[in-house]
Automatic annotation (TrEMBL):
Name of the protein this chain belongs to: Periplasmic binding protein-like I,Receptor, ligand binding region
Locations listed in the record: Membrane
Organism (species): Cinara cedri
Pfam families xref list: ANF_receptor
Domain of life: Eukaryota
Amino acid sequence: MSRVTGRRTAVYATSTTEWYTRIRDDERSPPPPPPAVAVMTRGPIIATDGLLLKSLLFACCSLLQLQATAPPLPAAFVSSATNVTDTVPVRRWPLEILTAVIMPADPEYPTSLSKVMPVLEIAVRDLYTKGVLRETDVTFKFVQRDDKCEDIEALRSSFELNVNGHVDLFLGPTCDYGVDLVARMIKFWNAPLLTTGAIANDFSSNKQDPKSKYFLLVRTGLLDFQDVADMVVNVLQKYSWKHVLLVYEIEGYSKVSGKQSCSLMTKTLVESFKGEAGIQYDAFDLSKNPQNNLTENLRIEASNKYSSKRFITYSF
């Protein structure tokens, strides 16, 4: 930076410690410019040297070639940079897929930690053996949490794991109420959730729309409550049965999909019956007469409402 003062020019050069002022005559030839240097800032690279520019172009081409042959990055390695001043994470090999395994530790559940963790280890070894993935490129880190089949515990575990280190994949929860809470959050974390649970009717809705509340939820189970309800309706239609008595326990079969499994199944059946003209139904909660066993409750309910009529009874 210079300032003209008559026949002489004051030239200011800056440094990290102090200001220096050098006075020279205008008739003298200007001093040679300093050599170009490359300065790394939070913004773009400033460079004018030809050799340095060639080196940078060669490095960029090498990175592009590496990116073309590399597998896609998980969400944890994807930069959210919107301009050149943002920090871009450095890719390191092998890529580590942080996987959260959230499910009950109690072995009485169909899917528990003691049953699932050995299977996951076998699955990873199988991927390496078949050449689907290379261990030098991708590794998996499984972090397990016992949610005790409780919705609040499942939500707390998912938040805790995601705060300590961004989770790339969720395996579980498997109990429906836990899935309901965690599945609403994963689209904000950009991490898919795979589960053998989520068998309630609500999870049968379209999940391909990013605006849907269960976006990124993938159910791997064979059946859900809606499939069972469709089967029951088909049987009723085949034999022209019109009257149905639903006998259920609200907390029955809690080891299948968590609390109120039977209640959720009954609600799914009721919704299916409402859409079929001619089907009449009644529901009976066994907890209303806990002093009687199932046989006695069936005898009382059937004889009062369905004597001399055909009826089909499902117990849940």
